[in-house]
Amino acid sequence: MTASKANLAYPDGPCFLDSGEAALVVEFGRGVDPQTHERVLALDAALQASPVEGLRESVPTYRSLMIHYDPLKLSRSDLIAYVHRALNTPGGLARLPDRWVMPCCYAPPFGEDVAEMAAKLGISPEQAIQHHQSAVYRIYMYGFAPGFTYLGGLHEEIAVSRRATPRPPHAAGAVLVGGGLAAVATFSMPTGWYVVGQTPERLYAPERDKAFLMEPGDEIRFLPIDAAEFAALEARALTGEIVARKEPL
Amino acid sequence: MSAGKGTSLRILSAGPGVTVQDGGRHGYLRYGVTVAGPMDPFSHAIANGVLGNAAECAALEVSLGGVEVTTEGGRVTLAVAGGDFEITLDGRPMPSALHLALEPGAKLRIRAGQSGAWCYLAVAGGIDVPDVLGSRATHTRSHLGGHEGRVLRAGDVLSTGGPAGEETPPARILAPELLRSSEVIRALPGPQADYFTEAAIADFLTGPWTIGPRGDRMACFLEGPVLKHSEGFNIVSDGITMGAIQVPGEGQPIVLMADRQPTGGYPKIATVIGADLGLLAQARPGAKIRFRSVTHVEAVEARRRQAEVLARGFVTEPLVRTKFTSEFLLGINLIDGVFG
Predict the structure, then answer these.
(1) Nearest CA of chain A to the CA of B274: how many Å?
(2) Which of A208, B190, B267, B306 has the most crowded CB, counting CB atoms within 10 A?
(3) Residue B304 sits at the chain A interface (C-beta within 8 Å)
């Protein structure tokens, strides 16, 4: 999968696709771009603001909103009419996104794959890190695993393709680059992405009041820290403290 | 985890893939959390329904690997429903759809039988494991829910919460719905049927498809004609439902099941309807299936019929009768039976 292709947004409104009889996909486009994503989030917020009997949950992705519903309680045609009403309700986003500053240690062993990725791209490791930390990322969606965030906004100089074969498992909190996207992992697992750093913040902490720290649409920027700072922040994060901070947009 | 004062189930032995599953972890897909829940939701609901439990109550999902259990702290009322598994109570053969109260020390053994890949052992009141993000369903890949986030093994003790159950001799659950064939699975086209050639859609419906050997709770792999994409095989990732039939580059479909990832990037030619998810789940590796295309209206109607079956409840037939209950008399066919 690649980023961009902004020309693939549908100009005449979304299309409605069935994913079985109990899920409706409201698709705004076929590509990855912030405008399409804004429309997905606006519809999601509108549906959450006025829940209807039979609507189970909605799942925002890059380009579509999947609405799970109980067709014995809410008919497909009533659901589509309800979505049309939500789309035509002025007001835009019900919620302003947050911008988060995420501490990230790029030094080895945390940024284990920086040198390998830089060599593949023909740039220095320092340049690769500079490109990664200078960008502002948008959380397009979660997927893959609880709290695993897919981030858009990667600098094109480090838009490396994914590995042909997965590398051995990385740590929870690994900061990843691959396939034109960035990501933050929450579980240790093998990956086809490159590990460029690690954050001590826990995007998913089941025992914390807010199990998932960030919402789709939020922005992230990474703040470089050294290994000593990482150790100190990690110890605080393990007690349930939130060590990322919000900054004004 | 200790079982405390109430009754509990002790796992004496368990093959691979035996887990605690409730109706699934809903409401957190947007944060990347897999729903999990039963592979055959209808059978899971029948086992719970026989006991008067809510359909989504936490129960044991038993794989082809089988399980052997006993009870501690008192008698536990339970029901087993699902595939045609071989069940024994202290060595005595029992029907595969079974209702009984298991006495402390008695051993209930469930092993793979003639057909079916999953069955459900529900207990009155449900299995009492911690609620994680609103659900007791086990998702082993993210170590969430169930008993310590993992498959069950010998020595595990699961609290069944309630006080000891009433004496209930073994009885057969009369549920002809459990004997359905898995040969024809109904599917609703889309959401990305337009990514396939007309020939591919015809091939998809003609099949036949063989259930591949490497399936698990995450996906069912199908082998058959190679399906050709008309527009490439990468889409920008979007949501995935249970039953979604995605077709990667090599053209062999993968049906995403209970432990599917929340999102994915292959086109989905069709989606197995809710009423037939269990049929597909019960098909074993090597089994042949075909898909039949249905409309949204037909899919909803099939779902409604299943909901009506569950709402009506189930009759049980005692294996050794001391008296005829009115439920039993209503449940048997008096026209062409031995009473004729």
Answers:
(1) 7
(2) B267
(3) yes
